Amino acid sequence: MASEDVVGKTSATIANLAEEAKIASEGVKAPSRHALLSICKSLVAGGVAGGVSRTAVAPLERLKILLQVQNPHAIKYNGTIQGLKYIWRTEGFRGLFKGNGTNCARIVPNSAVKFFSYEEASKGILWLYRQQPGNEDAELTPVLRLGAGACAGIIAMSATYPMDLVRGRLTVQTDKSPSQYRGIAHALGTVLREEGPRALYKGWLPSVIGVIPYVGLNFAVYESLKDWLIKSRPFGLVEDTELSVTTKLACGAVAGTMGQTVAYPFDVVRRRMQMVGWKHAASVVTADGKSALEYTGMLDAFRKTVRYEGFGALYKGLVPNSVKVVPSIAIAFVSYEMVKDLLGVEMRISD
């Protein structure tokens, strides 16, 4: 697919820029053993952060997806509290965490690549920016951080998108579903066999568009808030140039809330497009024989969703998502920095 080629070129460009920045700053021809070790530690820290944060909010994550894709002809989940109670009553405690194993298997490499790509993209973008006359001593600005965050999000999402698609389907299937995926490998094989390889990237376009404000704003707002707090030291929140864990949690919460609110309609459309073409789909999608809408593309999905369900349908599941996104994003960032500090990773941009 052409879009995949674009993402691949973007990834390669960022990697090359990051390498050039290392060579320019360190005066060496190849990454040192210490640099490679730092890269590995960065990947570990990002992976742990993603796994811990998603597991902590798994019940809300599952409910959000169920609300996004359930057939409007037969509503089973109607709100956060009612939805969680319904899952508990019909599927038990394990039902609250259905799909979490698949989510962790996807989110660990996703978060690892995302955090690593962000830091490498930041170095490359800053190096490019400093090549312009008058910017030799420039530092990262919110706009540059936004670009680095968006690049990181697109690279990570594209690399793991097939797992996200099967994770969505595994999450919504219940014991009453006419056919069961038995796990990640079985789901991937079934989709490939019945729907073809392109089906693994259904909903990719709204994901790419939505990830730009979502991940971009997450990183830009979080890093900018940290810098502002350290420099201005308001309300005595900073001591010795270090932020407390509570303050970092607050920064992560603000960043996550802003990002998810802007990008949420794209997430709804992505999930609905992922369900299209699913033979023997889960009962929550088919609603006891009442077929769900078919979409020919992203714009068609937006148009039909608004036409048949109203504009508010683009925000179905927003409440549980808002409840989960604050601790999820905050825990992800704080876990990343704690693991990074524990492993002794030096992440500062080279001059």
UniProtKB/TrEMBL annotation:
Keywords assigned by UniProt, alphabetized: Membrane, Mitochondrion, Mitochondrion inner membrane, Repeat, Transmembrane, Transmembrane helix, Transport
Protein topology in the membrane: Multi-pass membrane protein
Domain of life (superkingdom): Eukaryota
Pfam families, per the entry: Mito_carr (PF00153)
Gene Ontology cellular component terms for the protein in this record: mitochondrial inner membrane
Signal peptide: none
Entry annotated with the keyword Electron transport: no
Keyword Membrane: yes
GO biological process: transmembrane transport
Subcellular location: Mitochondrion inner membrane
Alphabetical list of InterPro entries matching this protein: MCP (IPR002067), MCP_dom_sf (IPR023395), MCP_transmembrane (IPR018108)
Placement of Solcar repeats on the sequence: 37-124, 140-228, 243-342
Residue stretches in coiled coil: none
Family as reported in the entry's similarity comment: Belongs to the mitochondrial carrier (TC 2.A.29) family.
Protein name in the entry: Mitochondrial carrier protein
Source species: Deinandra increscens subsp. villosa
